[in-house]
Amino acid sequence: MTIGERIGFVTLATTDSYAAGALVLARSLRQVNTVAELVCLVSNSISEGTRTRLASEFDDVIVVDVLNSNDDAMLTLLKRPELGVTLTKLHCWKLTQYNKMVFLDADALVVKNIDDLFQREEISAVADCGWPSCFNSGVFVFKPSVDTFNELIEFAKNEGSFDGGDQGLLNDFFSDWSTKSIDRILPFGYNVHAAATYAYVPAFRRFKDQVKVVHFLGSTKPWTSKNPPQGEFSQFWQLWWSLYESNNQAKSSENVSQNTSNNNSVETPVMTPSGFAAVGQSQPGFTPTSPAKAGFDIIQDHLNAQLSSEASEPAPKFDIKPSKVMF
């Protein structure tokens, strides 16, 4: 990275659930004082209100077409049918207004400054804990290029993805990741997988000070439950919820202050972590409603529905259909 280069972190949200993850990711990056710009790619299925809320956290929110592998067989093997549309992240290579970028999955949480990643070359990433000869595509350094984007699309059409998602495709395309240069293999602290803390607790305790990015891999995400999993990873689960609710609480306090000085007999409901609640003196029998919910209201309602479900809290499924570009 040289002086004058434009750098940025980019993520992808294709559902309101993952939009909640993207919002927390942005806050975590701001909290560690990044100097890079923050960009969020979103699909057309994200509501206008949610896009507006994302725009308050990111420097730029860009609507992109959905790219779907439609490889049901491979995705079934992974037991993650929703991962087909993760190929949409290939659009990040078209952000050529930036000299270098770091992609972060929306289910990641940054706990220490990682701006040093912009000194790395394409493609730099952390080994996947499931098959370390491959890199995990939840965090990677890349250089935007329309030529690379077009080559990736052609490669996807001709070769497909061995796992049906973006990780298989990117590992085949950048097949020399682990052999070209040791500098492209990032330390595990830049993409700490939840599964690893269960498999090797002593190592996590020994190297926990080196954790920079936490990646909530797998079907269970923080937004599916406030109850953290047992073990060392619970502290990061709690941190995720703390960052998520911090904005809600600030909004609630602001609304309380505004409503205190308002003489209307019916106060405006405000959002709380558990849903909408009336503030101040309300008319008897008044039931708070929100005829025009937007942004975090929509996301919060979606999360509340998940949290109140009597089911075993399955992973959120992508609720979008392929559009325009299909493989």
Topology at a glance:
Layout: E1 7-13, H1 16-31, E2 37-42, H2 48-55, E3 60-63, E4 67-68, H3 72-78, E5 100-104, E6 108-110, E7 124-127, E8 135-142, H4 146-159, H5 166-173, H6 177-180, E9 192-193, H7 194-199, H8 201-207, E10 213-215, H9 234-260, E11 270-272, E12 275-277, H10 296-307, E13 325-326
Parallel strand pairs: 1-2, 1-5, 2-3, 4-13, 9-10
Antiparallel strand pairs: 5-8, 6-10, 7-8, 11-12
Helix pairs in contact: 1-9, 1-10
Task: Identify the notable features of this structure and list them briefly.
327 residues; alpha/beta; Spore Coat Polysaccharide Biosynthesis Protein SpsA, Chain A; six-stranded mixed sheet; three-stranded mixed sheet; 10 helices; 16% strand; disordered C terminus
Description:
With 327 residues, this protein is α/β, with parallel strands linked by helices. The protein has a domain at 7-188 and 316-326: Spore Coat Polysaccharide Biosynthesis Protein SpsA, Chain A (Alpha-Beta Complex), CATH 3.90.550. Helices cover 33% and strands 16% of the residues. The protein is built from 10 helices and 13 strands. The strands form 4 sheets. It has a 6-stranded mixed β-sheet with strand order 3-2-1-5-8-7, with helices on both faces. The protein has a 3-stranded mixed β-sheet with strand order 6-10-9. Helix 2 (48-55) links the parallel strand 2 and strand 3 (60-63). Helix 1 (16-31) crosses helix 9 and helix 1 crosses helix 10 (296-307). It starts with 6 loop residues before the first strand and ends with a strand. Residues 68-84, 252-296 and 309-327 have low confidence and may be disordered. It is an enzyme of class 2 (transferase). Its EC number is 2.4.1.186. Pathway: Glycan biosynthesis; glycogen biosynthesis.
